[in-house]
Amino acid sequence: MFGSIVVGTDGSDTARKAVSEAVELAKQVGATVDIVSAYAPVPSQRLREEHRDAPQDYQWTINPREDVDATLAEAEEAVEGAGVRVTTFAREGDPADAILDVAEERKADLIVVGNKGMTGAKRFLLGSVPNKISHHAPCSVLIVRTT
């Protein structure tokens, strides 16, 4: 049925619910989970300040995607703790595009996303991650009720 599941996270509570649902499904069907997190690079000024203030042996961890790395590490730990094989992907840019790209590259069988942002007129004016994914996915999509 599903051998490969892609799920996006931004570290929010609703994203954690979507990751949790993806993990539960993966455990039931023996699938792997690919976790995707999109990011905008940390501003150069902030990087310079953090680099200057950090101890010498910690400076190597300061990079333009340090925030997304922490988000992915937290999600990866939760998935591995459930006994599911996991791979993480940090992608610069739009969250929906990042999830869609990874799903296509990995030939995913399913994308799992939360429903946050799917209600009201805003979805027609601004679009949303779940809305965009549901219209452009290369595979099946599960939209988890997280709100």
Q: How would you explain this protein's 3D organization?
A:
With 147 residues, the protein is of the alpha/beta class. It has one domain (4-144): Rossmann fold (3-Layer(aba) Sandwich). It is built from six helices and five strands. It has a five-stranded parallel beta sheet, with helices on both faces. Helix 4 runs parallel beside helix 6.
Brief summary of the model shown:
The protein is an alpha/beta fold and 147 residues long.
**CATH architecture title:** 3-Layer(aba) Sandwich
Our Rg estimate from Cα atoms comes to 16 Å
Q: How many E strands?
A: 5
CATH level 3 topology: Rossmann fold
| Beta strand % | 15-25%
- Read across the widest sheet, the strand sequence of neighbours is 3-2-1-4-5
Q: Report the order of strands and helices.
A: EHEHHEHEHHE
Domain count: the total is 1
Mean pLDDT: 84
In CATH, what is the homologous superfamily? HUPs
Helix content: 40-55%
Class by alpha and beta content? alpha/beta
Low-confidence stretches: 118-127
Largest sheet: 5 strands, parallel
CATH class: Alpha Beta
How many helices? The count is 6
Gross geometry: globular
Distance between the termini: 27 Å
